[in-house]
Amino acid sequence: MTTKLLGERVRRVEDERLVRGKGQYVDDLLPDALEVAVLRSPHAHARIVDIDVEPVLDIEGVVAVYTYDDLTGAMADPLPVLIPHPTLTHGRTQYALAKDEVNYVGEAIAMVVAENRYIAEDAVSRIRVEYEVLPAVIGVDAARAAENLVHDDVPGNVAARMEQSVGDAEAAIAAAPHRLTLDLEIERSASMPMEGRGTVARWDTDSRRLQVWTSTQTSTGVRAAVAAKLGLDLAQIDVITPDVGGGFGVKILHPWPEELLVPMAAMKLGRPVKFTEDRREHFISSAHERGQKHHVEVGFDDDGRLLGLSVRFWHDHGAYIPYGLIVPIITSTQLLGPYKPGNYKVVFDSLYTNTVVVTPYRGAGRPQGVYVMERTMDAIAAYLGKDRTEVRSVNFIQPDEFPYDHGLIFQDGKPLVYDSGNFPASLEKLKKLIGWDEFEAFRDELRAQGRRVGIGMACYVEGTGVGPYEGAHITVETSGKVKVAIGLTSQGQGHETAFAQIVADELGVPFEDVEVVTGDTRRMQYAVGTFASRAAVMSGSAVALSARKVRQKALRIAAEALEASVDDLEIRDGMVRVKGAPNQQMSLGTVAVLSNPLRYAFDEASQAATQFSIGDPDKPPIAEDDEPGLEGRDFYSPERSTFANGMHAAIVETDPETAEIRILKYAVVHDCGTLINPLIVEGQIHGGVAQGVGGALYERMVYDDSGQLLNASFMDFLLPYVSEVPDSIEIDHLETPSPLNPLGIKGAGEAGVIPCSAVFASAIEDAEGFPITSMPISPSELYELRLRHEKGSTT
């Protein structure tokens, strides 16, 4: 009997390949391809007076040099704004190669194609560019001051201003028994996947077909961009995503300039061309995120219940805004978390600066929003002298209030309506996991030893499964093997395992007989992409719907062959059986043979299914509403996003002398609806927490006033090692299935990282006894805060 796999801790099938070094990445492909190096701006803001490529042209091994003047047609136009918005009144994007002006250190100016990367880089160093250096705008404060402009035609450096409100927040705050104001900041960070960006392209002159391999989170998006910019039909282009060494959001942008320039060069030169980004290039020319400043005004009653909340914030989106307003929109809506704010108003400005562009980084605006809301909750609790969990509890949306409509518009343009959850139950689980009620005794014990500890917590809600759609195509081979194609790419999330579990359950076939292919436009031409914790919800649902189509067709064909009613059939272990009559059965492979009217049988197992053995002469071989083959394709398009949620807590120790911060215990309660594979979900949480520790305590992008990134290497940009992340993470799950999709799934990919800055700020503040208002925080910064607090307390 086939074992039910949904919810089981199945080991990942892709690990055999990836962990043993058998993966194949972009840089492993087409080793004889020409290679690319890119000349990047050394200035944050400058006019390009002249570019002289003459010194490069005679270098042996150089094949071609391109500047903006070599771009024609749509390639000479700015890159697209991927997600327009009515409030994005001054959207600006860069050119594939800079035209007239550069606006951040690292912007692409010229591209050299050579026989190898060494020659290409040497050639790039010989290109002479004359610049007129302009004043640089670095950081939110400089952008708001608007003494200098990033783009001359963008007043005040403001690309967009957006406001949403429910009720009258200002009046409610003014009338509230208690009021507080807070100013909170999170600095820039970046995704830093192990593999940087990379693209390889090959043009077949005879067939006029272009093949592109790229390390991306959206193969179909890249395909559409390449077609539009190079004047090709979609049918002429195959985009294949091989193994991808991490994405975390930076590879969702499409197209990157190199994803257009490399195919263009391959077409012009008639030879394969390859671009592989090095680590410094990733720092200065890919994408950052997180940088925001927030001003909060809140009014509340004696119990800590929110009566009015007003948030004004400023988002630094860098020199261009190719990905639109997704990050600040998410902050503005998701900061509400599991709470009912009463009256709410939020206004944000999205600002240009002469720094690297912003794309979503794992969490995508939510870490900032959760930080703001949870710091506010902690401040209310401190003001009232109440336990921090008590203040949260009185503000929770209750289980019987779902679906809960906040009266706002979410990132997908649809109402912000939470579909399911049980926040009080999650809090009780978290308190037990972390030992919340026993902590004061623990603190006293360590205080007697001269040690300083604190406890913190944070709650979050995460919009997941954002549309508009995803699809799947499933084929049962005559061997009985099941082939599954989805348009999503995979960056290590375990798609090959999780989606195979769904198919095995839905079709009643052995897990080992299911093969999943991702991110290959030859197999699935229409898709959106892997981001926003949407893969399980969107593709998982599409896979389930497609499998159900295949199952229905298999039962219909088998019923005819076995002379039985469909209602009397079942599929187990890859066999279609008559219930209660085990001898009346046939394999799915045989059903696949029968699904084709040209029923040749090339193996013994399908001898019973020759073209002459079965068939009604009075019926056409294929019904009008059917097609040959045992396969099915379907698409899932949700009415709105699903909303996962969770709560984290941590106990930290801060060294009294060095101010070093050590994590003693970390706990997570997570609700992603129906669990496909708890092992994979827990892996996502572990990885997310590690990334969250980095974002809270180590990672930041440090620019000087001229726009030079001062820490553009792993020597200076600090990542947490295994010694800096928790030794173990206590995890518990709560399952409140979503009513919005066929499996009740909610997303899980960003759960680990979202609340970490808020958690650590809360715990450090609890240990130290003074407010923490800016993240990330380093030991040296904590030490300085101590000195300021001590000085302030004595004056």
Report on this structure.
The chain is of the alpha+beta class. A 7-stranded mixed sheet has the order 3-5-1-12-9-10-11. A 6-stranded mixed sheet has the order 7-15-14-13-8-29, with helices on both faces. Strands 18-26-27-28 form a 4-stranded mixed sheet, sandwiched between helices. A hairpin with a 4-residue loop joins β9 and β10. It is globular, with a radius of gyration of 28 Å. It holds the Pfam family MoCoBD_1. Keywords: Molybdenum, Oxidoreductase. This is Xanthine dehydrogenase, molybdenum binding subunit apoprotein.
Describe the structure concisely for a colleague.
This protein has 795 residues and is of the alpha+beta class. It has three domains: 32-134 and 197-276, Alpha-Beta Complex (Aldehyde Oxidoreductase, domain 3); 364-464 and 640-793, 2-Layer Sandwich (Aldehyde Oxidoreductase, domain 4); 468-636, Aldehyde oxidase/xanthine dehydrogenase, molybdopterin binding domain (Aldehyde Oxidoreductase, domain 4, 2-Layer Sandwich).
Architecture (CATH level 2) name of the largest domain: 2-Layer Sandwich
Largest sheet: 7 strands, mixed
The proportion of strand residues reads 15-25%
- CATH class membership of the largest domain: Alpha Beta
- Structure class: alpha+beta
Return residue spans where pLDDT drops below 50 for at least 5 consecutive residues.
Answer: none
What would CATH call the homologous superfamily of the largest domain? Aldehyde oxidase/xanthine dehydrogenase, molybdopterin binding domain
| Anisotropy-based shape | globular
